[in-house]
Amino acid sequence: MAGLLSLVIPVYNEADSLEPLVAEIDESLRAAGLEYEIVFVDDGSSDGSFAVMQRLAAPRGDIRIVKLRRNFGKAAALSHGFAECRGDYVVTMDGDRQDDPAEIPRLIAPLDDGYDLVSGWKQSRQDPLNKTLPSRLFNWTVRRTTGIPLHDFNCGLKSYRREVVDTIYVYGEQHRYIPVVAAQAGFRVTEEKVSHRRRTAGRSKYGWQRYLRGYLDLMTVLFLGRYQHRPQHLFGGIGTLLILIGILVELYLTVDKLIFGHPIGQRPLLLLGALAIIVGVQLLSLGLIGELIANSRARGGPDQAQVARIVEGGTAALVLEAGAANLGSTTPAAGTSVPAAAAADSVTAAAGSVPAAAEGAPAGAAPGVTDRQ
Predict the structure, then answer these.
(1) What CATH number has the domain spanning 5-226?
(2) Residue 273: how many CA atoms within 13 Å on its side-chain side?
């Protein structure tokens, strides 16, 4: 890996863990020969964590601190850390020392193979059953509903390419779904097995409430990923179905009244049909309002975050000419045809093949091609 590596570490009341954590990071990353910076985000700590971070940052220039005014949550802390970090690659990890810094070199290796985000998969998790069992159910649910085959969405140890953290935006408590948000944005996501350690200081900051909030956040992420640009497909589809059901119910009751003479004024089915039509019209209207909002956003131009790269045309002929000139005696005489395979060989001889680009990996562009990212 070439370039700077940024470690973004959100911290909330982890004063006793910070010094040994930095010592482990220094030992592991210096042994791997990596150039790195550490970005601490103090998420409203009240146990003196900020003073410890200041003491660690004072004698060195590769530690930076972002102090938030109060505890805004992990998603906000990560967002501020992403905004302040300067690395080409970014690694996030928790400040409680349960993530092992020795795993970082192995975690960033798949980024060189063309992946954009690598999520850790904790092995032999060192947590009590009241955390591990709900976590397994949570991961199974997210895996089934999103179709992303990861085993540990909520692992704090993750590595990213710079363009990922510049593109995605998480808020509330959506940090659990960063791999989902990244995959919805078109980035390549994978996972890597990592070790997990027992907490040696402090206490867990999570309670049972996070599972209810996690379910609601999952609904939000799924909705934004699938219907952000076409809300009428969801609201209008459900609304139209309810309207049709209501109309069929009312038609049935009309026939029952006019042809068979049965009274319908006191039948609950009459109210049910009317209610279905009213709710359907409301959902259809809500979808149209959503489309108005989406249309106003679309008028600002296409979403540049959807573009991976732009390759300018008009230079392939120059590459072909250069290849023909370099081939010397193998260049055919004027007026003779050049088979397509020979022309392709000429380009390959002049510019060299780029298998990584052909496979979709974010390797450099071939010579003679202007590549803007």
Answers:
(1) 3.90.550.10
(2) 16
